[in-house]
Design brief:
single chain, 173 residues, mainly beta, 4-stranded antiparallel beta sheet, 2 helices, elongated
């Protein structure tokens, strides 16, 4: 086996299928073809084989078809913090299939661009001591968006926050 090139721009070989209405019904026509598509995760991500996750997606051409799916390594889904209702664009990805499912994969962060996702919400808040509260969020939070002195948080009954530490999906006050 001899590799003749690598890193070649393949964008001229890619087809935009964002408005295609037959990605699922005519998957054989698209199988292994390089495509570009914009979509919205229309359900929560779930396991899809060892180390992978998938979610049904909606595109401009197809809505409410559970057999049109975005699939990626679980580590990539987590790193991109993708959740239900995130809007994304896939670029130069090969169409795959698994039984009746048309799968649009991302293997590396360069394959997918996230344009919008829902804001994180507090899922739990627990007093871990008499002077500390740990909040868990639904999504990762960028630490630079939270003031380290705790001034972003308010309490009642005279309580105040004197510091805030962000780590992934948790904030310790």
């Amino acid at each position: 086996l001899t590799r003749s090139s690598q890193g070649t721009d393949v964008s001229t070989l890619s087809t935009d299928v964002g408005t295609a209405t037959d990605l699922v019904s005519a998957v054989a026509d698209y199988d292994s073809r390089l495509v570009n598509v914009t979509g919205v995760a229309s359900e929560a991500f779930a396991a899809s084989g060892q180390g992978f996750q998938r979610a049904a997606i909606t595109t401009a051409g197809i809505t409410a078809d559970p057999n049109l799916q975005f699939r990626a390594p679980a580590a990539l889904v987590d790193a991109l913090d993708m959740v239900h209702t995130c809007t994304f664009a896939l670029t130069n990805v090969p169409v795959g299939r698994f039984n009746a499912q048309t799968q649009l994969p991302a293997y590396v962060s360069g394959d997918v661009t996230i344009s919008t996702c829902p804001a994180p919400v507090v899922t739990t808040a627990v007093a871990t001591s008499s002077t500390q509260v740990t909040m868990t969020l639904s999504r990762h939070l960028d630490p630079i968006t939270v003031a380290a002195n705790g001034s972003d948080f308010t309490f009642d009954n005279g309580l105040t926050a004197s510091g805030a530490v962000v780590s992934g999906k948790t904030i310790t006050l």
